[in-house]
Design goal:
Mean pLDDT: 96
Helix content: 25-40%
Structural class: alpha/beta
CATH class: Alpha Beta
Strand content: 15-25%
CATH topology: Rossmann fold
Number of helices: 8
Radius of gyration: 17 Å
Low-confidence stretches: none
Bound molecules: magnesium ion, zinc ion
Number of strands: 7
Distance between the termini: 50 Å
Strand order of the largest sheet: 3-2-4-1-5-6-7
Order of helices and strands: HEHEHEHEEHHEHEH
Length: 218
């Protein structure tokens, strides 16, 4: 019996991720991989972030979910072109799922492609998509222990976006603890505190993403 090892699957995924990245670089589309648990507030963050990013016509979103197209509908409601990928029983997106989405989203006209990566803090760590930047979304109610409990994912973070900050006091959420755990795992990662409901922290994140795109394609 032949066994296809996880290592081989990941190596094949890495190759496809590099192909995706080459294509994105050619078209100067900056791809952001948004990773976080179900309910972390990834879609709500996008609903508030996209209008801050500038021209809606230059933005694209891929929504990965097991079922429904509810999240893509929410993104289209703010005027941004979105495509839903239903993974059915899959708990993460993989690099091979992106090229068909690139075709359907008219990529050459875009500056940014945001990918909402299902809802999972475990396997998206290993499945690179070819993204330029990884933002891990952690909501306050999930608890301030999550960074150290899911080290492989947080070690790949370029940014940590802490959401639902209005609930910090009632959850005894220790921002300093989170920041120090993250510093150990990913010293480069920048931390943003966001309350989408109140619109706090959104502009700072948008400005930083635009700077990151400029320096990537300079
Ligand atoms: Mg969502
Ligand atoms: Zn998975």
């Amino acid at each position: 019996m032949e066994i296809l090892s996880a290592k081989k699957i990941l190596a094949a995924n890495d190759k496809l991720a590099r192909d995706n990245r080459r294509r994105l670089d050619e078209q100067r589309v900056f791809m952001v991989n948004l990773i976080g648990s179900p309910g972390a507030g990834k879609t709500t963050l996008l609903e508030r972030l996209l209008p801050e990013m500038g021209c809606a016509g230059s933005l694209r979103v891929v929504q990965g979910d097991m079922a429904t197209r509810e999240d893509a509908d929410r993104i289209e409601a703010v005027g941004v072109k979105a495509l839903q990928i239903n993974t059915e029983n899959g708990c993460h997106l993989a690099a091979h799922m992106l090229p068909p989405a690139f075709e359907m989203l008219d990529l050459p006209g875009a500056d940014f492609l945001f990918v909402e990566n299902v809802g999972n803090l475990i396997c998206p760590a290993e499945f690179h998509l070819g993204e330029h930047l990884r933002a891990i979304v952690l909501s306050v109610p999930e608890g301030d222990d999550k960074v150290r409990k899911y080290p492989p994912t947080f070690a790949t973070a370029d940014a940590l976006v802490v959401t639902k900050t209005d609930l910090a006091a009632s959850n005894d959420f220790d921002f300093e603890r989170v920041a120090s755990d993250l510093k150990r795992l990913s010293p480069r990662a920048k931390v943003f505190k966001v309350c989408a409901k109140r619109g706090e922290g959104i502009r700072e994140l948008a400005e930083w993403l635009k700077e990151r795109r400029e320096s990537a394609f300079a």
